[in-house]
């Protein structure tokens, strides 16, 4: 413990002792026990018997200590004995709190990664291209790069025709945000996709394009990503692949072209008739992503349930749309009609459903079991409500406890909810995928699933020792 002298009143000196922490009683007891039981080889035995480290990790710690560097002052005790004697109490205390030598969370992937992607929570960004607020900030590839460097595994791009209607820009539609060219974003994604994690990267595309621009995007994606791009062997999947099977692959998630027009029709746009160019020029092409008006989530039918065939659109090009559609691994959609119907599980195919945080809150009140049942095979994406123009976030716990895999967050700020999200995804080696608990994946003999509102007895109490990391019994 150091001391510091300060002069005051020109002639008097006063000493203050620094408030360094003393080793608490449990650390003192552990140090004494290790020294009494293990003798000269105390540190190595402590690492093996108490910390449950494997020999390779013990060797790494001892080598780091003997080399100094990050170990700082606690490296000196290694040279005192050729047999790696137990350090002094202060050195032992310093070792326990060293983030490099004794980290609180393992930086290795330790969970089973061979289950379908729907069995995992996935680190998900919202409007990943924005540099600030949701209303008038710039669009850029810089926040996309930052998100990938932080381990985010789902990047969102909103695609709109540029001013000349001959290429595609990325911007927040219906706002004052400045655009960025799609190719700039795609090139940055390719360069940084696996800098923090080798597990699959999902790109969610909010599509506001005409058929010819969709074909152009399909060509850009295929050419830019090359062998990194995963192309499914069939139009629909009856089960999602596992993160392990898709390591170092990029997968696309969006609405197939036909579903895009159907959504516009269901929203009451009766004049679409396939002429998206004209609608865009007139300013009537409404944004249908996370800034669309939140539906009330009630169990009410839509007025429009008729499906629009592809042949009804005179500008629809089946061959062109096919090139775009075949790249989609995770087919996306938003609820149409009754919420109960939107959450129905199709045994023959899997899909992704998107709900706003407002819709989720209302849906969990009346359809909680349906949501959990849906997320056992399908993917549920939750996004911030449109009024969060300052890029704030919501509490993710309700979404997580109902099995939602993609809880999309704005990464532009530093609010409490974002820190919670970032801390949560430090688990499992920070790979961006965290296995959902078994109780969210199990179904009872009568089809019953976990009820988040049920009052359940406590099965196990976890006591955390704040100073000594004790491994689980194998």
From TrEMBL:
Biased segments, Basic and acidic residues type: 278-290
Enzyme class: hydrolase
SUPFAM superfamilies, per database record: PLC-like phosphodiesterases (SSF51695)
Pfam family for this entry, one: PI-PLC-X
Annotated compartments: Cell membrane
E.C. number(s) listed in UniProt: 3.1.4.11
Chief location: membrane
Domain of life of the source: Eukaryota
GO molecular function: phosphatidylinositol-4,5-bisphosphate phospholipase C activity
Record keywords: Hydrolase, Lipid degradation, Lipid metabolism
Domain PI-PLC Y-box residues, every copy: 354-440
Catalytic reaction equation(s): a 1,2-diacyl-sn-glycero-3-phospho-(1D-myo-inositol-4,5-bisphosphate) + H2O = 1D-myo-inositol 1,4,5-trisphosphate + a 1,2-diacyl-sn-glycerol + H(+)
InterPro entries found in the cross-reference section: PI-PLC_fam, PLC-like_Pdiesterase_TIM-brl, PLipase_C_PInositol-sp_X_dom, PLipase_C_Pinositol-sp_Y
Sequence ranges of Acidic residues compositional bias: 291-313
Membrane topology listed for this record: Peripheral membrane protein
GO terms under biological process: lipid catabolic process; phosphatidylinositol-mediated signaling; release of sequestered calcium ion into cytosol
Region (Disordered): 272-321
Descriptive protein name: Phosphoinositide phospholipase C
Source organism of this protein record: Aegilops tauschii subsp. strangulata (Goatgrass)
């Amino acid at each position: 413990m150091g001391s510091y002298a300060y002069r005051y009143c020109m002639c008097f000196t006063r000493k203050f002792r620094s408030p360094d922490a003393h080793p608490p009683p449990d650390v003192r007891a552990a140090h004494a026990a290790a020294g009494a039981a293990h003798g000269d080889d105390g540190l190595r035995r402590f690492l093996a018997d108490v910390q449950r480290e494997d020999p390779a990790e013990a060797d790494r710690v001892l080598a780091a200590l003997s080399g100094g560097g990050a170990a700082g002052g606690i490296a000196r005790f290694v040279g005192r004995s050729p047999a790696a004697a137990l350090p002094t109490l202060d050195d032992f205390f310093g070792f326990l709190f060293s983030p490099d030598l004794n980290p609180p969370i393992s930086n290795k992937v330790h969970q089973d990664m061979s289950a379908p992607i729907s069995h995992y929570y996935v680190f998900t960004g919202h409007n990943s291209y924005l540099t600030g607020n949701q209303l008038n900030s710039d669009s850029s590839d810089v926040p996309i790069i930052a998100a990938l460097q932080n381990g985010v595994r789902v990047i969102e791009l909103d695609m709109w025709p540029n001013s000349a209607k001959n290429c595609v820009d990325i911007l927040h539609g219906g706002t004052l945000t400045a655009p960025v060219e799609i190719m700039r974003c795609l090139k940055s994604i390719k360069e940084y996709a696996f800098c923090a994690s080798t597990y699959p990267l999902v790109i969610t595309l909010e599509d506001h394009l005409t058929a010819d621009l969709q074909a152009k995007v399909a060509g850009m994606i295929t050419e830019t990503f090359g062998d990194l791009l995963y192309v499914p062997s069939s139009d629909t999947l009856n089960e999602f692949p596992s993160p392990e099977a898709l390591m170092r692959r990029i997968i696309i998630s969006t609405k197939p072209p036909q579903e895009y027009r159907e959504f516009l029709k269901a929203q009451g746009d009766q004049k679409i008739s396939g002429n998206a160019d004209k609608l865009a020029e007139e300013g009537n092409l409404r944004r249908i992503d996370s800034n669309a008006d939140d539906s009330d989530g009630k169990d009410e039918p839509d007025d429009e349930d008729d499906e629009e065939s592809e042949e009804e659109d005179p500008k629809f090009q089946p061959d062109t749309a096919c090139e775009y559609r075949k790249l989609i691994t995770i087919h996306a959609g938003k609820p149409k009609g009754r919420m109960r119907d939107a959450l129905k599980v199709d045994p023959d195919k899997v899909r992704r459903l998107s709900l706003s945080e407002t819709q989720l809150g209302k849906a969990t009140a009346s359809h909680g079991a349906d949501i959990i049942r849906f997320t056992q095979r399908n993917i549920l994406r939750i996004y911030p409500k449109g009024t969060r123009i300052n890029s704030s976030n919501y509490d993710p716990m309700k979404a997580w406890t109902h099995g939602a895999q993609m809880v999309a967050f704005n990464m532009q700020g530093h609010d409490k909810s974002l820190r919670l999200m970032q801390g949560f995804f430090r688990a499992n080696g920070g790979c961006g995928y965290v296995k959902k608990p078994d109780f969210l994946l199990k179904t009872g003999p009568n089809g019953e699933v976990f009820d988040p509102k049920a009052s359940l007895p406590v099965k196990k109490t976890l006591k955390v020792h704040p100073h000594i990391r004790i491994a689980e019994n194998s």
